[in-house]
Write a structure and sequence with these properties.
5-stranded mixed sheet; 44% helix
């Protein structure tokens, strides 16, 4: 189906996002309202506040997305929504609103997995990208290596056993007194730091060498900060931030390269908020160049949560026959 306009909703965490996407590849509008400043007061996302803010914002953002796209309600061919994983209350706002819109417009409702959406963000930036390829999905809530065999045919090759890479950045940023979300402040602090000054652990996970673990790294960095404070010793904050970024990148990048080789893929795509990290991007570029892999790094604006990525993946889910009805629920945990 061509010239298919999908109205897409994303509300899995603390961004309310509504977008209109045509044929899975063309973004007609992408309206986003971030709650980051509000949650920064608490050092992290407060689920109840996030849910309430989604309720307040989603109708107005829908009007804005339609206006920005120059598309009327009658010009919408399908409605898509993130149904999981994420914060259950936040997800329910998007799911229930999307069900109402689909019912009111008499249009198909397409459920979309949040991480499939992050992978699809690459389709918006790179028209030439098509499966199969290897995807490194790295965000505040998830870190996994995905074999993308087709647009809707995916399997997890490796994943974190505990904390996600983005969560690790956030928790260490908080103990350093940096604002939430911690990824960008940590990246800025790391500039000029010595990434080898503080020896931090790199985990090896028994049972699957493509699996990851970041809890030990987080604990080691937090203890380092607390010990320095208790002893009154000076802490080289830029070097600690740089050392943390190096440790996280060295957990992610070699595993992604190894997974691509095992699958026989010659293409690797990054996805998710941590894909915006300067150190991770540079290490991926170098490793792919050295191993003869083609690399796709989404532009920074498409790394974080947005509605356009949901609209992109929804197009391929629709072609594969995915439909939902009024019984569609939200899921805090959902297999990709």
């Amino acid at each position: 189906m061509t010239n298919m306009n999908i109205l897409a909703f994303e509300s899995s965490c603390d961004e309310t996002a509504v977008s209109v996407v045509r044929d899975g590849r063309q973004v007609l509008s992408d309206a986003i309202l971030s709650q980051a400043d509000m949650h920064a007061l608490y050092g992290g996302v407060v689920p109840e506040i996030a849910s309430r803010k989604h309720v307040e914002a989603i109708a107005g953002l829908t009007d804005q997305a339609l206006a920005d796209a120059g598309v009327t309600k009658a010009g919408i061919d399908a409605v898509a929504v993130t149904c999981g994983p994420g914060l259950i209350g936040a997800l329910l706002v998007g799911v229930n609103f999307a069900k109402s819109v689909a019912c009111a417009l008499g249009k198909p409702l397409i459920p979309v997995h949040h991480l499939r959406g992050h992978i699809a963000a690459n389709y918006l930036a790179f028209p030439e990208l098509e499966p199969p390829f290897l995807a490194l999905c790295i965000s505040g809530g998830n870190s996994m290596i995905v074999d993308v065999r087709g647009y809707t045919d995916m399997s997890i090759l490796g994943a974190t056993r505990d904390d996600a890479a983005g969560e690790c950045f956030d928790k260490i940023a908080r103990v350093l007194g940096l604002p939430y979300p911690g990824g960008k402040p940590m990246e800025e602090l790391a500039q000029g730091g010595d990434d080898a000054k503080y020896p931090l652990p790199r985990a090896k996970v028994a049972g699957n060498d493509l699996d990851m673990s970041f809890s030990g790294l987080k604990t080691a960095a937090v203890n380092l900060v607390h010990n320095a404070q208790q002893k009154g010793e000076a802490l080289d904050r830029p070097s600690l931030a740089a050392s943390v970024a190096a440790a996280i990148s060295e957990e992610l990048v070699p595993r992604a390269i190894e997974a691509a080789k095992r699958c026989g893929h010659h293409t690797l795509a990054a996805a998710g908020g941590v894909a915006a990290n300067r150190r991770v991007r540079a290490d991926l570029e170098r490793a792919c160049r050295e191993n003869g892999l083609r690399l796709f790094l989404p532009p920074l604006k498409l790394c974080g949560d947005n509605g356009a990525m949901i609209g992109s993946q929804a197009y391929y889910e629709f072609l594969a026959g995915a439909r939902a009805d009024a019984s569609l629920n939200a899921y805090a945990n959902l297999e990709i």
